[in-house]
TrEMBL record:
It comes from the Bacteria. Keywords: Cell membrane, Membrane, Transmembrane, Transmembrane helix. Pfam families: BPD_transp_2. The keyword ATP-binding does not apply. InterPro entries: ABC_transp_permease. The chain crosses the membrane at residues 6-25, 37-57, 63-84, 96-119, 139-161, 194-214, 226-250, 271-288. It comes from Thiomicrorhabdus heinhorstiae. It is found in: Cell inner membrane. This is ABC transporter permease. The keyword Membrane applies. It is a multi-pass membrane protein.
Length: 308
């Protein structure tokens, strides 16, 4: 396959599509972790968002309702996690793992009648002149609203964390929940909101998967993307701009399995399929040797016991 401009544009568009669910879920998890909560249930929240969004679109015909339903499904799963870990003080790691297992099983049950049903996909942006530009029209003006929203949220997340009072309070809670509590901030309420926001973004990422990236429902269609999104937060050292970089890097690795053999590279397809997960392990090993843990919120994963 010759790398002419049309092919390059197609590859870039494919990378953007593959990166978007990772970006959405990772940005949500970043906010949750900045508040001091480690939620390993991204995979479960994403898959529930995917199945509920697809079921809603199939039964109502409304993409808007489907997206909203996916967000609410992710928030519902996050609420379960928040109640167990913040109100009942259960272990965050064990609860997050249980949430993922629960989500995968429940989604398979709910979606059993929808397996293999196709959907036309979310409408693409169509600007009469800009969308017809050679190369740039395809790369910049041929996407659906969720892709543009994911890019906007990178800047919105940076602004929130670094330029607003609410972002400062969130970071203070994540750094020292005892100190934040002592000066009157409602630590549990703040963490509830952060976890629910993370669930909403993960549900939206799942909705993007079933309504746009692969517009259909299939069991386990998240295929480990929740775990990659978790690794992205660590890779990004809890910075939104690096989440964007990491998501597109992993998106590029993901689409190698689609383009590698088409370009005549004589490597088994199974090797390309495992590349995103192999890259995740390599990145985590490299980061762990660079003492990135010191950049993590100091209260991350630690239970808060309010004193009166």
């Amino acid at each position: 396959m010759a790398l002419n401009p049309e092919v390059i544009a197609l590859i870039i568009v494919t990378i953007i599509g593959a990166a978007t669910p990772l970006l959405l879920a990772a940005l949500g998890e970043l906010i949750a972790e900045k508040s001091g909560v480690l939620n390993l249930g991204l995979e479960g929240m994403m898959i529930m968002g995917a199945v509920i969004a697809f079921m809603t679109v199939h039964n109502t015909g409304s993409a808007t309702l489907g997206i909203v339903a996916g967000i609410l499904a992710g928030m519902g799963m996050a609420l379960i996690f928040a109640f167990l870990t913040l109100s009942l003080q259960s272990n965050q790691v064990a609860t997050g793992l249980a949430l993922t297992i629960f989500g995968l099983g429940l989604s398979a049950l709910l979606g059993r009648e929808y397996v293999g049903i196709a959907y036309s996909g979310l409408p693409k942006l169509d600007l009469p002149v800009l969308s017809e530009l050679p190369f740039f029209g395809k790369v910049l003006f041929s996407h659906d609203i969720l892709i543009y929203f994911s890019l906007f949220m990178v800047f919105a997340t940076f602004y929130f964390l670094n330029r607003t009072r609410s972002g400062l309070i969130l970071r203070a809670v994540g750094e020292s929940h005892d100190a934040a509590h002592s000066i009157g901030y409602p630590v549990i309420a703040i963490r509830y909101m952060a976890v629910l926001y993370g669930g909403a973004m993960s549900g939206l990422a799942g909705a993007y998967l079933s309504l746009s990236y692969s517009p259909m429902w299939a069991d386990n269609m998240t295929a480990g993307r929740g775990w990659i999104a978790l690794a992205l937060v660590v890779f990004a050292m809890w910075m939104p701009s690096r989440v964007l970089l990491g998501a597109y890097m992993f998106g590029g690795i993901t689409i190698l399995q689609l383009h590698g053999q088409g370009m005549g590279i004589a490597i088994p397809s199974e090797f390309f399929s495992m590349l995103p997960y192999l890259a995740t392990i390599i990145v985590l090993v490299i980061i762990s040797r660079q003492s990135s843990a010191s950049l993590a919120p100091a209260s991350l994963g630690k239970p808060f016991h309010p004193t009166h």
